[in-house]
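#structure-requests
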Amino acid sequence: MTDLGGPGHHRAKGPGDGPEAVASQIADAVESLTALWSVAAQEASLRLSPHQLRALRTVQAAPGLNLTALADGLDIGLPTASRLCDRLAAAGLLERAPHPGARREVQLWLTTHGQHVLGDVADRRAQALATALAAMQPAERAALSRGLRGFLAAQDATPDAAGTAQDTTPGAGEPGP
C-alpha cells in the first residue's frame, strides 16, 4: 500500500507530491473505493455481478437501445450480450420489445423492478461513501473535493491516445461498478 499518511501505511512508492507518488496514492484509494463499491452492491436486495450492473446501468442511461449498442457499450460480443440480457430478463430486471421502425431490431428497457434494484444499489453505495467521508476532517473533505474537481478539469483538457479530448460524461467509458 502507498503511504497515505494514515496509521499502518509505511511504504511510500515515490518521493514527495510528484505526479508518480500521487498517482500511486490514488491507485491505492481506487482499490479501496472499488472494494467499498462492490461490498455495498452485494448488500443490495438482489445480488448482481458487476457485469450485470453495468448492463443495467447502460440500459438505464440509454433506454430503448438495441442489443448491438449494448454489446458495443460493454465491449463484449453479441452472443454474450444476448445471454446476459436473457438472464436479466429472466430475473425481471430487463425487457425486450420490438423496435417500432425496424422489425428485426429489439429494444432494451429496464423494468420497474430493474429501476428499483439500481436505485437500491446506488443508495447503498452513496451511504457507504458518505460513511467513509464522514470519518474525514471537514478540511480533508474540502481538499478532496477541490482535488477531484481539478483532476476532472485536467482530464477534460487532456487528449487521449487518439488526440481527442476525454469524454467525462457520467457513465462514459466507465468500467464496472
